[in-house]
Design a protein that fits this description.
Layout lengths: L1 E8 L4 H16 L8 H21 L3 E8 L3 E8 L20 H8 L2 E6 L5 E8 L1
Antiparallel strand pairs: 1-2, 2-3, 3-5, 4-5
Helix pairs in contact: 1-2, 2-3
Length: about 130
């Protein structure tokens, strides 16, 4: 088992999301027994990208990414200072305002959760197959 924390900032910086993806790949490569399959690793990176992007855009411009490896799963947890929780909505096919990400995360993950933090903000987490 292992854990990694990554602080992410700069609301409009694509490099922050890219850094989160890169850190996630490094974390996953470091896992040994059992190693993670390539397809599962791609899914984890996609979910990290989506949750970090949403936290930066809608959660106050900063967030912390935490990855935890269990023998049969990977937990992706993203902390941000906003109390606003993600919600399902009809994707916008015409104006490009989004709506695809949270449903996608829910389809890819074994389970998702949103937990309000006593100190403010929230944690959005997804449990994915290893």
């Amino acid at each position: 088992m292992g854990t990694m924390n990554k602080d992410v900032a700069h609301i409009r910086s694509a490099t922050s999301v890219a850094d989160a993806r890169r850190s996630t790949r490094e974390f996953l490569k470091g896992l040994e027994r059992p190693a993670i399959a390539a397809e599962s690793a791609d899914t984890v990176v996609l979910v990290v990208s989506e949750l970090v992007t949403n936290a930066l855009l809608h959660g106050g411009g900063t967030c912390t990414l935490e990855l935890t490896a269990q023998p049969d799963s990977i937990e992706v947890a993203v902390y941000d200072p906003s109390p606003q929780v993600p919600h399902m909505r009809t994707p916008d096919l015409n104006d490009g305002t989004g709506g695809f990400g949270w449903p996608m995360v829910n389809r890819l993950a074994r389970a998702t959760a949103v937990t309000r933090r006593a100190a403010g903000g929230k944690t959005v987490s997804a449990h994915l197959a290893r």
